[in-house]
Amino acid sequence: MRRKLIIDCDTGSDDAVAIMLAALHPQLDLVGVTTVNGNVPVENCTDNSLRVLDFIGRGDIPVYEGLNRPIARADFPIPRAIKKSTGIHSKELPIPPARSRKRDMAAVEFLIETYRAATEEIALVPVGPLSNIAAAIALDPKFVERVPEIVIMGGAHHHGNVTPSAEFNI
Amino acid sequence: MTPVLLDCDPGHDDAVALIYAARHLDLRAITTVFGNQSLEHVTRNALSLCRLVQLDIPVAAGADRPLVAQPIHGGTIHGKTGLDGAELPEPDRAPADMHAVELILRTARAHRGELVIAATGALTNVALALATEPRLKDWLRGITIMGGTTGIGNVTEIAEFNIYADPEAADRVLRAGVPAWLVGLDVTRRVGVTAADIASLRGGGVLARTMADLLDFFLASLQRVHGLSTASLHDPCALVPFIDPSLIEYRQCCVQVSLDPGLTRGVTVADLRRLRNVQLGQIRPTGPANVHLAREPSPALVPHILAAIREVDARLT
Asked: Is position A161 within any domain?
């Protein structure tokens, strides 16, 4: 049986690879993609995610846009211009513009409603800042029980990439 | 009539706000937030008040704690239930099967460009709604808030309860770019009912007599804790800009929330200077005006609120 999952991401070049892997792997069923402010502004995360899905012929997978900044702090802790100069993530992925469009519903509402209605297990895989997930937990006290498994890319044990010990997503 | 969603934590003065809104505005929905009492108590109170006022509108429970801070623990001037002092009817229905944020978004979508959110508790629900759906800021006509102060506080010396209860949420809301009205404790303390005002409600029907019981309790609480001689009607003041703007004078200015730990946490810092567009050392403007800040209540305001209670009471079946 194909394993269902939702990717919450800030596409982002390595996020693009994650989306491709999840969307094309024969044993995975990518239910949807939610985006969050992170590597690039959220509008660009959304656009890039749509580009990737169209590029691999999976424009049928829905994309929902999420939080455009962290929940509590007004600024974004990392000056993105530095990342731009390093070329780690380009604002716009170098593949053709998206033909598909994001869905009208907000990412957090999609997450809550999908897990509320789910009859099969859907793994949640956040690979960006956890703002959408935190908001979903705040809005739905049962959300935590309804998500069978959460697999996070984030944090660092030995050394970080933003500070000597802190990783970007966290 | 202006469609309004009341986000509240009833609460004695929230109860007055609910009635004031029911009399003069198109009250579409009520959402609740922790604050004057636990979320469970204030939600139950909102449902009881709806039954008392015969309001058939959705009520949804929201946040039971602040965005990031630790919840405030300890006593409340609103008593064990959040609405001590009167026998309220048992709720005749359950809250809506959705979070307050979902009800806020649904109501805003249904009244795009028209809905006003009146917030009379901690701003957690409103902040979460703005975070969840960034387009919400364009769907609202405005947010009108009871919170903050330019002088005296009621939790700490200089911090007002609603802002202090969740400063990070208040910060998010005030930065959201939605047209905002803010009435602070420095103004609402001057909008108080006397024991004689309260007694004058006792000639009315069930609603007026219930409100008299509630306000008696509230006045006694405020006398005992804060040494006040009148019961401040804080929360209904938030509705004034959309009921009769002449009843409170507002001024546009920049208001920021202090998120620092320590003495100033949860304080609203209002720039009331009238600086010219110059910089002289540290003397410089803070930023563009983000709120209409209440400055001066009219003596006609308290009678207007009391009249609303009597009028709603009189039209109940």
From this structure: no
Structural domain of B206: 3-315
Q: Complex ipTM above 0.90?
A: no
Predicted pLDDT of residue A84: 52
| CATH number, domain with residue B83 | 3.90.245.10
For residue A134, what is the nearest residue in chain B, using CA coordinates?
B67
Do the domain assignments include residue A159? no
Q: Determine, yes or no, domain membership for A169.
A: no
DSSP A38-64: SSS-HHHHHHHHHHHHHHTT-TTS-EE
Q: Give the tens place of pLDDT for each residue, B156-191.
A: 999 999 999 999 999 999 999 999 999 999 999 999
User: What's the pLDDT at B40?
Assistant: 96
* Structural domain count, chain B: 1
A146 has a pLDDT exceeding 60: yes
**Tokens 């009331």 — which residue?**
B272
Question: Which CATH number belongs to the domain containing residue A43 in this structure?
Answer: 3.90.245.10
Does A119 fall in a domain?
no
Minimal Cβ distance to B131: which of A112, A135, A141: A135
Q: Which residue in B168, B161, B209 sits closest to B309, CA to CA?
A: B209
Is the CB of A140 less than 8 angstroms away from the CB of B128? no
* C-beta atoms of A109 and B172 within 8 A: no
CA distance linking residue B222 with residue B76, whole number of Å: 10
Count of domains for chain A: 1
> Could A109 and B67 be called an inter-chain contact, meaning their C-beta atoms sit closer than 8 Å?
no
DSSP conformation letters of B107-154: HHHHTTTTEEEEE-S-SHHHHHHHHH-TTHHHHEEEEEEE---SS--S
Instruction: Summarize the confidence of residues A124-139 as an average pLDDT.
Output: 97
Give tens-digit pLDDT for A82-104.
Answer: 455 556 677 889 999 999 999 99
